[in-house]
């Protein structure tokens, strides 16, 4: 479970799917979650994700992911609550107070709608991250490259995209390693307030930057030493082809997308 951000070899329907199906799923969900702002639509999409994770056997890994990004989601939620203090919205208010400063009238107002906005944006970010890691957990490096090459994507571009899908989990894993090292030195990151957690995360950002640069340098040296040449034509023993499972997965993705758009149109509230 420690390597939850990397490819997990399981015999599930998600792992057996054509990598192109999962890549299209990632693109569609990334676009969808970037413009959907309806709580009802996002909640429906979240339920679809849960069903996919449970059927695909990666539900426990997604729970670990949620635990790792909970500080980020809490920060987003609190940020929208703070921004909501400076905006007066319609509806029942929890707290509202006016004051005057230098001849200008100001109002601090906290409504239930501010909690709705914070939850919507936090859920959007989580779904974006989850779509990315759903592909990572079920698709290895070679499958990503092979799938993109089947679309006539140049090998250099396919290799770069596949490398991105591998590097990001490595960066997050490095971040977790640094946090564990800081905990052993007495830096509290669990049993403290949300704002203290954010401050402590900022503290470890500098060593993380140097670790990331070091990893990038190591990858560049490895590519140089092994004389990686993108101009050489490559073949593969592995073949990929779409099957019945891919058809049903694509149909589910399309149906979920259409339903999400319908809910977005019918239940959208300006935020």
TrEMBL record:
Keyword Transit peptide: no
One Pfam family this sequence matches: CbiQ
TM annotation in the entry: 42-64, 71-88, 94-113, 125-146, 152-172, 201-227, 247-269
Chief subcellular location: membrane
Membrane topology of this protein: Multi-pass membrane protein
Compartment list: Membrane
Gene Ontology CC, one term: plasma membrane
Swiss-Prot/TrEMBL keywords: Cell membrane, Membrane, Transmembrane, Transmembrane helix
Annotated protein name in UniProt: Cobalt transporter
Species for this entry: Sporolactobacillus inulinus CASD
Lineage, opening ranks: Bacteria, Bacillati, Bacillota, Bacilli, Bacillales
């Amino acid at each position: 479970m420690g390597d939850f951000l990397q490819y997990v070899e399981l015999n599930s329907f998600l792992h057996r799917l054509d990598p192109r199906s999962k890549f299209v799923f990632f693109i569609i969900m990334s676009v969808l979650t970037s413009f959907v702002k309806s709580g009802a639509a996002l909640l429906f999409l979240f339920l679809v994700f849960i069903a996919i994770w449970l059927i695909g056997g990666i539900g426990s890994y997604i729970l670990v992911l949620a635990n790792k990004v909970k500080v980020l989601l809490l920060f987003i939620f609190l940020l929208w609550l703070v921004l909501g203090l400076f905006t007066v919205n319609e509806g029942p208010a929890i707290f509202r107070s006016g004051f005057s400063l230098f001849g200008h009238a100001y109002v601090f107002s906290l409504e239930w709608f501010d909690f709705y906005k914070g939850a919507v944006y936090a859920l959007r970010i989580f779904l974006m991250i989850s779509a990315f890691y759903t592909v990572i957990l079920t698709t290895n490096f070679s499958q990503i490259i092979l799938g993109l090459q089947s679309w006539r994507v140049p090998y250099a571009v396919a290799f770069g995209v596949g490398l991105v899908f591998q590097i990001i989990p490595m960066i997050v894993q490095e971040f977790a390693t640094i946090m564990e090292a800081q905990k052993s030195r007495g830096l509290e990151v669990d049993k403290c307030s949300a704002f203290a957690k954010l401050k402590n995360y900022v503290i470890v950002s500098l060593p993380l930057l140097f670790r990331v640069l070091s990893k990038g340098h190591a990858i560049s040296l490895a590519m140089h030493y092994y004389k990686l040449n993108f101009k050489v034509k490559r073949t593969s023993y592995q073949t990929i082809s779409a099957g019945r499972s891919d058809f049903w997965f694509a149909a589910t993705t399309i149906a979920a997308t259409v339903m999400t758009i319908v809910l977005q149109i019918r239940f959208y509230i300006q935020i």
